[in-house]
Structure formats: C-alpha cells, structure tokens
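Hey Z.,

So I finally got round to the magnesium ion thing we talked about over coffee. Here's the setup:
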Amino acid sequence: MISAVIPAYNESHGITEAIKQVVGVLSTCESAWEIIVVDDGSRDQTYQQICRLAQAEPRIKCIALSRNFGKEGAILAGLEYATGKAIIIMDADLQHPPNLIPEMLDKWRSGIQIVHAVKRSRKEDSVGKKTAAYCINKLISSLGGFNVNNSSDFKLLDREIVDIIVHRLPERERFFRGLTSWLGFSEDYIYFDVARRQGDESKWSFWSLLELSITALTSFTSAPLRIITFLGVATLLLGFFVASEALWSLLNGQAVSGYATIIISVLLIGSFIMISLGIIGEYIAKIYEEVKARPHYLVKASVGITGKKFG
Ligand code: UDP
Ligand code: MG
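And the result:
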C-alpha cells in the first residue's frame, strides 16, 4: 500500500483539484493507496472540502490539527498516521507535480529507500526569494555538512525510514530536508520544474522562512557556536596588538592615539558580543523547547483514521 501525506494550510482554493489529480495518478499505478491530508489549522474551508472528498472516497483521510503548527508538524502528523509501505510527502498546491509519483515508485521498487524530487528551476519565484533560498541552502549545506541544495519537501520515504523518523528521533525541532540526508540510507533524486502555484500566494512569509532557516541551522549544527569562539580569539589577537601599540606609545611618552580608535573598537566588540549572545540564545531556546518536550502537534478532528490513538 502507498500513502500520500499532504499538509494543507488555507488551501481551499485548489485543494479539491489537487487531491483529485493525486487520486487520478495513484489509481493508475496502484490499487491499494491512501491519501492523508493534514489540515494545519486552516482558517478557511480546507477541512470541509476534504471531508466532502473523503465521504465520496474512503481512501482519502483527513487529520485536522488544533491550530497552525507549521508544515513540519503537519508532515509529522501525517507520517505518524500513514500506514503504507511507501509514503509520499507532497504539497497541497500542485507545485509538486503528481505525475512524478509513478517514477518515484519505480525507484522505490528498485530498492531505493528515499527518493527526493528536486526542483530544477524556480521560474516563478522572485529574484529575492531565489537568492534567499540559494543562500540558506548553501549556508546549511556548508555548516551542517549535509547537502540540502535544491531540495524540496517532495519525497518518497520507505516504511523503514518513516518508522525511524517517527519513533527514533525524539527531537522537537525538525528540519525534514536535512534529516533525511542525515539518516544516510540509500537515496536517489529525480528532477522537476516547479509548477505555477494553484490558488493564491505562498504561505511562507519572510519571517517564517527566516525562522525555518534558523531552525535548520540550530537543529543541525553547532558550527555557529564554534564560529563565535574563533571570532573571540581573533578579537583577542587584535586586542593584544592594539594594547601593545598603546603601551608602546605610552612608554615613549607620546599621547595614546585616538578617540576614534576607542569608539570603533568598543562598538565593534560590543556588536560582536551581542551577536554572539544572540546565537547562544538561539541554541538555549532550542534546548528549552526540547526540554519542555511538548507534542509536535495536537489533533482536534479526523476523518477515516481508525485504530490509532491521537497524540
Ligand atoms: N503549509 C502548512 N502549514 C504552514 C504553511 C504551509 O501545512 O504553516 C503547507 C501548505 O499548505 C502547502 C505546503 O505546506 O501544502 C507548502 O506551502 P507553500 O506552498 O505556501 O510554500 P512554498 O511552495 O512557497 O514552499
Ligand atoms: Mg507551494
């Protein structure tokens, strides 16, 4: 059996059409399938629309989260309730073309446990978004040591991988794209062009993208902390240099040079310290979140899900 997990947040514009297309593709290549749509606290008619679809087709199931937990939480909810031998994660806005599914399944049948569908182009995105995405991916890849370049959340995961993600990775903060490469099982890539977005604007604001990148970095690598240490050492060396210069001129009876030097160094070092505190703060905040061990999501309603307790 094949499961498709689809997180949806305020997608009432295009969700019905999107699900219909996924159903069409799944029916042609597999007889046993299920679609689990996770309504991530939408404030529009998304849930009602899926319920309508689910009444007509019992293989369509829906989980409604109690509020907007974010895409990562929604995906995790879907993974926990998916029962298929292979699980496909895709967006609800048809930006992840359903007609790639047969190709992904072929790769999976040939023994590959993680199939990534990678965006070939970002025609539709603005230059700013392209650059931001490029920089963030580069930064994460180089600091974290995992290749997340050009990755997207459109993936096929083998049952084994999903079990590991659900049961063996207790962390609260997740960054799926990096996590799957971290696992280290056999992976393969297929490429696609990003389709035009169905419906309205992207749900990601600048801040949510910034937050995603901070999560990606802090949940993956402690390299920023090490960079602080290096910066501290560099500042110390600079300090020695400036101090000996000052002492030298003092001993030679010259006035110590420059108000400007003092102001500049105080400001520079001050900002170094503040930025460093900020970075350390991010990590402490992450530890705080992990220690609280709150659930990743809460379910308020569901359609078609049986035999499992909601967490
Ligand atoms: N999404 C979600 N929760 C959120 C934001 C987005 O479940 O808080 C879903 C959304 O419904 C869509 C997918 O995540 O299915 C990708 O979102 P979007 O298309 O806005 O992002 P982009 O395509 O720009 O990466
Ligand atoms: Mg999208």
